[in-house]
Amino acid sequence: MAANETAPMQTMAKMIEAMAETPTAPRPLALHLAIQNLMFTSSLTALPSLKDGSLVWKDSLDPRARSLREKLKKVDADAFAEALNHEIGERVSAFAEGVNRFAAAARPAPMPALPEIWSEGTTRLLHAEARGRPVILIPSLVNRAHILDLDPDHSLVRYLADAGHDTYLVDWDAPGPAEMRFTIDHYVDRLERIRDHVIGTSGETPVIAGYCMGGNLALALAHRAPEKIKAMALLATPWDFHAMPSSATAMLTAMLPGMKQLIATVGNLPVDVIQAMFSSRDPGNVIRKFRRFAAMKPEGKEARSFVLLEDWLNDGVPLAAAVAIECLEDWYVKNTPMKGTWTSGGTPLDPGELTVPALVVIPDHDTIVPPASAAPLAELLPDVTLIKAAVGHIGMVAGSRARTTLYAPLREWIAALQ
């Protein structure tokens, strides 16, 4: 390898060494470094073949390959290689700077703690008290609950309470010894006890609102006793798990035996494995994000929001073994919810039987739960209001437009319930 070709690799090596002890970094950092290394080394390796025409792509990439070869004939090979190495070095350095700035960024004081009014195992029920109808917010099991109570400008919990709705937040926390033996049904059992506690203290049936996987839990809760639920909101909730790219389903199917062995050995699905699976949807996304962060004003609002959200993303929790297998095998591989064979409390869960008023919110730019995965719920539920929001999965609840795309419409829908 020529001297000018080694510069990006030397930069990357220094970055790896400098970040080896970084406590706060995009997880799993080693995966993102490997992806970046693969992207850039493949660019360098492919350059000679692109120029001499020996590298041929099939199908739709053929015209692009031919066009690139024609353009490369007109440039000096050494000058182009030097420019390519320079660009790679710039991008590697920008990613390293973004990660290091993120690690060193000042963190704001945490939000004032919401009162804890109920607990069981590692699960807590937090309360933002108001005089109106009770609302229970149910987050996913794989991320921390505070995405719904992130900061003063991004707190669905406090927004609803300020609007007069008596708001409760389920905080699952990481599974403890008891929860490590849980199935999804066990978590729904716990939600039943939370619902009954809220009914007992408020005297009213609650509205339940589930975010992402929390929406599936909310559906199961409503399915068990619809008479104890006033209404149900499903926020970016997946239902047709084969609406994902078929290649992703095929890959997961092939990986499943090994994943089961890992889960059996470790006792859970580890956080870094979960993060890696999410990253596989767009392997370059984290690299691009942290390069953008490197260019932000360190004290600016955009940088502050980035740090808050990335801290939340990197502070995930493992999934209990049985829950992980049910999600991976039954949902993603077998697509049991869409096929009508997913059971809760021993009976199949059919959204068409749930006559409680429902709100389905689908983010148009969601890459975690593609719109096509969430859309069937809006078609299957008998009494449904559909809202489509021009935001992403996380932006819907914690982005700059969260108040207008989700908070206000949800507040208005709850207020209009009879």
Describe the structure in your own words.
- With 418 residues, the protein is of the alpha/beta class.
- The chain folds into 2 domains: 3-104, no CATH class; 116-243 and 318-415, Alpha/Beta hydrolase fold, catalytic domain (Rossmann fold, 3-Layer(aba) Sandwich).
- It has helices at residues 3-19, 29-52, 62-72, 77-104, 156-162, 184-202, 213-224, 246-266, 271-279, 285-294, 301-313, 321-333, 336-339, 371-380, 395-398, 402-415; strands at residues 116-120, 123-128, 134-138, 166-171, 207-211, 231-235, 268-269, 319-320, 343-344, 347-348, 358-363, 384-389.
- The strands form 3 sheets. An 8-stranded mixed beta sheet has the order 1-2-4-3-5-6-11-12, with helices on both faces. It has a two-stranded antiparallel sheet with strand order 7-8. A two-stranded antiparallel sheet has the order 9-10.
- The chain is globular and about 80 Å long.
- The model is unreliable at 15-23 (pLDDT under 50).
